[in-house]
Design a protein that fits this description.
single chain; disordered N terminus; about 55% strand; globular; mainly beta; 7-stranded antiparallel sheet
Amino acid sequence: MYCIMKRALFIFTVLLTGSICWAVNFKQVGYIDKGAWEWYGLVKTYDTNHDGNKEIITSCRTQVAPLEAVYSYEYKGNNTYILGDTIWAGTPYPFVWDVNEADGDGFTDLTMQNNNASNNVYESIDYISYSKQIVWSYNTQTIGVAPTYFYDLDRDGKYDILTVDVDAESVFVFENNGDNQYNIVWTYNGTGLAENWSTFAIADFDGDSLTEFVTGTSGGNMILWEHTGIDNQYQQVWFDSIVAYCSYDNIALKDLDGDGNPEFVIGSHYNSGGNWRAKWSFFKSTGDNQYAKFYEDSLYDNHLLGDYYSASYSGDIDGDGKVEAVLARNNNWLVYKWDGSQVQRIFKAYATDNNRDNTVITVSDMNGNGYDEIIESGSIDSAGYTIGGETKIWEICGEIIWDSLNAENKDSCIQVKWSTAKQFANYGFNLWRAVGADSNYTIIYETNDIIRLDTALLSYTFNDSNVTTGITYYYKVQAKALNDSTLFFGPVNVLYTGISGRSWEPVIAYSFKLGQNAPNPFTHNTTITYQIPKSGMVNLTVYNIAGQKVKELVNGNKPAGSYSVVWNKQDEGGRPVSNGVYFYCIKAGKDGDIKKMVIIK
């Protein structure tokens, strides 16, 4: 049964640099009536059953049986989600941590921890099933939360499991050694890890081709380990601290500032004058195994249990090919963007409508349109008690900055012209007309474009020949912006004094252009845009790194205009292709171009 979709619109505007004003709008486009409960586990997305649609996987607690469960909700088009399967149900309470295809057999693996000190790997029983059969287990001393991840830490082609035993104050690495087999290969025994809400940030942060992983500890301390270059060997290479009670939420950013190296964020909380505050500290590499804080933000945190973590993420929210950080804490989530010189907080949302106890975040392009959605999952409180959970899916809204609109008498028609100073995530325009009065409008013309971001002055013209002498006509233009149908300009009116008419095509100057696919890198779907200046034969084909044809996306005559096509990483036979580098090549008359794209897990 389809979940009822609740709709809302968040609007927030901030001044970024100088006179540049960014308006950031988000709309709730999807809803699931289950969600992460209190501080347990993460919300993840993955196409576990390989049908081309991602699922949202989250731990839940409800007031009806099963009280504690892990659900997989599958995307089914048009921003709707249905229950794909109940992956796990029962007690003790489950924590979802990570999902991947970890042991090389093509079946999806899911790491999940039970509140009885058991870390488990669940796997699909076949290629088209959800991950619900336990295939590996490891018991620790930890009764509380122990974040667990799949990652090829030593880059030997075999996935590792990275986890922490907070009660034993130890970090463990297990390496895959065959089908559903993981052997312990490294252990760190230290002190200060006895805060059971610390997650890991994992990446090559300093660009030396060696993987690092960093976690926060009690007292605001941070420890960063690096692979030594020797198989399954890691060493502590950096230590620092911030003013905090504990550091609980640590994420890796996918190169926020565009310098080629990823950054990491340490989420923490501290007491200031008797009030708890949440804080995010952004760190970047300044050299080999050297890191410095380059941005920090905080907000009031009224959560009575202020030492429980939230889970944050990063992704390309606005489809510009650059990542944004989406950070969560209790009933808030915030979006941060690099403005060219510094980090700016560009959005803050409050979940006060549902008395949210805690929020976990992930970012993923669920509907395949090139814009990552923000998936916000958490529990709902009433009178201090958790009564259930919910998951909301948010997507950015398109934006238009109008420049001009006018209507002018011609001998044969009324000529309507409009122009824009900026278009973001816009799919064209509707031209509305009313006869004799400013009411009862109907659409008389529309354009169909895909403009991700264009700050150049773009002009459009339509000649309305269906007019009668002596009648006043009213015109207004509507942008077909992503998730926002309220962007109108006008009306303008004109008394028609001509005697005859004929329709003209809109005057739009197109040039040849092949856009960079977005998102890039991508895991499931990516969108390729192109523009041709005149009608003719167009061919757009994907090739692998060996120059072999993989998939022909376009092959036919096209009129002049802007176009987009989605590739679902399948070849001509409908089979998913492997991860790696691919090229897409366009040929349109005498024009041609080629660009690179990357598929990752």
